[in-house]
Amino acid sequence: MxxxxxxxGGAAEQWLTELHKALPLADVxxxxxxxxxxxxxxxxxxxxxxxxxxxxxxxxxxxxxxGVDAILQLGGSLPAGVxxxxxxxxxxxxxxxxxxxxxxxxxxxxxxxxxxxxxxHQWRFLKPRRKEEFxxxxxxxxxxxxxxxxxxxxxDFPVRGWSRSRKExxxxxxxxxxxxxDDFLAQSQVLVCVLPLTPGTTGILDRATLAKLPKGAYLxxxxxxxxxxxxxxxxxxxxxxxxxxxxxxxxxxxxxxxHPFWNQPRITITxxxxxxxxxxxxxxxxxxxxxxxxxxxxVAGLVDITKGY
Amino acid sequence: MxxxxxxxGGAAEQWLTELHKALPLADVxxxxxxxxxxxxxxxxxxxxxxxxxxxxxxxxxxxxxxGVDAILQLGGSLPAGVxxxxxxxxxxxxxxxxxxxxxxxxxxxxxxxxxxxxxxHQWRFLKPRRKEEFxxxxxxxxxxxxxxxxxxxxxDFPVRGWSRSRKExxxxxxxxxxxxxDDFLAQSQVLVCVLPLTPGTTGILDRATLAKLPKGAYLxxxxxxxxxxxxxxxxxxxxxxxxxxxxxxxxxxxxxxxHPFWNQPRITITxxxxxxxxxxxxxxxxxxxxxxxxxxxxVAGLVDITKGY
Lengths: 309, 309
Hints:
The structure is a homodimer. By secondary structure, chain A is of the alpha/beta class. In chain A, 30% of the residues lie in helices and 17% in strands. In chain A, the strands form 2 sheets. In chain A, strands 8-7-6-9-10-11-12 form a 7-stranded parallel β-sheet. In chain A, strands 2-1-3-4-5 form a 5-stranded parallel β-sheet, with helices on one face. In chain A, helix 3 (69-72) links the parallel strand 4 and strand 5 (84-86). At the A-B interface, helix 4 and helix 5 of A face helix 4 and helix 5 of B.
């Protein structure tokens, strides 16, 4: 079995070592420009178009992450009929739950304000926010959204979820489709974006959307930088409509050193670390799926290319 | 039925309104110096000795909080044979779980370091800590400790608990008694103190204890300031043995403006807000317990005065 590997910015050698261990009978190689030798599987993160173009002989392409936008942007260069398989979770869901719980707790419990007071050596009680009036709205209720909801419910936060099709998750108030988006936004004191990036969701966090959140609302973006119209966020913070934001993803990464976000104290910036692909978990999952395919069994995580996720 | 009320620093009027509503047939009054008229129950927070002295006619004293150290310090002034009843939870446990989860996530996910980088407009990846090597140890496994454990387990943290007598909590590695304390400390990358304050636990977080934590360990104190020898914490931070601390309680509160903690960037300070007594929940609980006592039923939360909690 031949496997070609490519990971943009990744430590190829360590991935190869793990893949060899998990699939000792496979021949795994790092794809290089000009390599058109046959392959059964491709394991990729942000691959160049030339790697996959015309490779209709592949049995599957595995994407090293939950978001498949970088692969789908290859469009016509993707070999027709080859299934694209996304990592279901591979340790990412709990990391997302950690990140979002941290962001929500920091804002809800006013820890950011206590930090600011402490810098001034100030001991001052601040009136607690009321949980009953503090709904967290999750945009995107797939595997990651559901895990985030589970973590927040455990702290008794009221949780709402929005997705294209209605999801029934115990304890979560479910909103579905464009018709129910405004109602969802109006009731989300914190808005968490964990949507897939598709043509339909690009720029969804714009002025029109963010203005529908209640006054003082907080934004958490752990999906893709292109979901957010960055200028609109700055305007709504400056206008006092939004209370703050914690952002892990940006239009340009690394965030340019002269970007206005750096100077906005109510924006907390992390360098795209909310959920890292864990090598061990990912390789185990890919190896298991390859074995399923070889046995002719169905695999989970198949990407619907028409939907974009 | 006569109820006397006293709350140090509290909004007596609002408590009285709630108590009247919950127990409409009771006569509730704020205790004042010199009031020795009969009473059936006392509802108190940090009461003066004169309020309770000699009042053997009380059927119970209710403490407006989980920690009963301020009442027990009255010692011989407490009327003999009168049960002291602590609030079991009254909304405090989930607040403790929120606070500790926040502190643990902030340290584990290195959000404090990302904040520092962001202040310098720096976008830099930091190697994630490994959860398998990141045990959280909870000192004190009562109602609050158990709720904290539940929240942390949900994020897949390895959780250890230490208490005087062994507690069996699913998923928690239980340590009990003085003999097992050192082993517990040696394996706690984060140490969370939620012990009752008794003569036996006063100053328990001293140099000897903190030095047994692994290098780089983090301390969270949400119990009482007197558990910690503050000078020893500063020394162990300066020596590089401890990685940081998040403290909600202090020897002197408010924390004096010239206290060295304010200038130590690795100490996060909050002004005793980890778990506020919620008036509504507390009053409902007290009213329910009074009804149980009047019907001759046993009540939960009885303080064992010899143990001190």
